[in-house]
Amino acid sequence: MNYLRFVVLTASMCSALACAETIIVEAVNPDLTWSTTVLEAGKTYEITVEGKVYWDTFGHFENGVYEPGNWSDAEWFGGNWAFSNHQLVEQQGDKPGDGFDLVINDTFLDWQGEVTPGVWAPHVYSPTHIYKHWFVGTGSAISFRYADLYPTGTDWYNSQNWHSDDSGEFKVTIQSMGEPSVPGPSAVIPMLAGLAVSALRKKKR
User: Fold this and answer.
1) What is the pLDDT of residues 156-183, one digit of tens each?
2) 53 CB-contact burial (10 Å; exposed 0-12 / middle 13-18 / buried 19+)
3) What are the angstrom distances between the C-alpha of 89 and each of 67, 110, 122?
4) Which of 23, 102, 8, 190 is nearest to 111 (CA)?
5) Mind giving me the DSSP string for the chain?
6) Mean of the per-residue pLDDT values for the chain?
7) 87 to each of 83, 146, 166, how far by Cα in Å?
8) How does pLDDT run across 111-145, given as a tens digit for each residue?
9) Pairing of strands 71-72, 53-54
10) Contact status, residue 37 vs residue 21, Cβ threshold 8 Å
11) DSSP character at residue 39
């Protein structure tokens, strides 16, 4: 029985280590939200973000649907604000002053939208508000933050007070694209099961 418990416990640990990490990033929070995962140097990670947040409380109707405020997702924003005028506007990764972006390590980037199922590309709006980015690890954890910056602003640290009327959250998933650094369940479970069977046979003797 002890051996069987050991198999189940170890298999669960390996499953957890091989699984992706999910992080919640709240729009109202001006501080960094860190991953607990340390991204191995040189290894590529697929980062998926899902969510739609509101960067003010100016309620309005948009395409016949009431919105509690002007909104954005990780890459695009819309609403009735003067520079949007109910049109979708992309936050350009090379123009930090555009704001309303989900940033990694306080760096603006171009999140890729879904062109067709399973096909992702930059400068594409995803109606599902799901986007992806492929990040190469540097041997450390990474941080996320919703950049509520006024479009004409350039200084992140002078703009943090804009978060006070924000709402909503992003769900961020970090998944390794390479081989896991520890054996996954497919390798560990058969190995441990074999050990357990062997131990039980010896016990019967």
Assistant:
1) 544 556 788 899 999 999 999 865 444 3
2) buried
3) 17, 13, 14
4) 102
5) -HHHHHHHHHHHHHHHHHSPEEEEEETT--S-EE-SS-BPTT-EEEEEEE--EESS---EEETTEEESS-EE-SSEEESSSTTTTTS-EE--TT-GGG--EEEETTB---PEEEEETTEEEET---TT-EEEEEEE--SB--EEEEE---TT---GGGSGGGGGG-B-EEEEEEEESS--SS--HHHHHHHHHHHHHHHHHHHH-
6) 74
7) 9, 21, 20
8) 999 999 999 999 999 999 999 999 999 999 999 99
9) antiparallel
10) yes
11) B
The secondary structure of residue 41, as a DSSP letter, is T
**Closest among 149, 148, 142, 128 to 173, alpha carbons compared:** 142
Summarize the confidence of residues 101-113 as an average pLDDT: 90
DSSP state of 165: G
- Main-chain dihedrals φ then ψ at residue 133, nearest 5 degrees: -150, 140
Q: Which of 38, 152, 42 is nearest to 97 (CA)?
A: 152
> What token pair was written down for 153?
């602003």
Amino acid of residue 184: G
Q: Determine the Cα angle at 85 with ends 79 and 91, to 5°.
A: 65
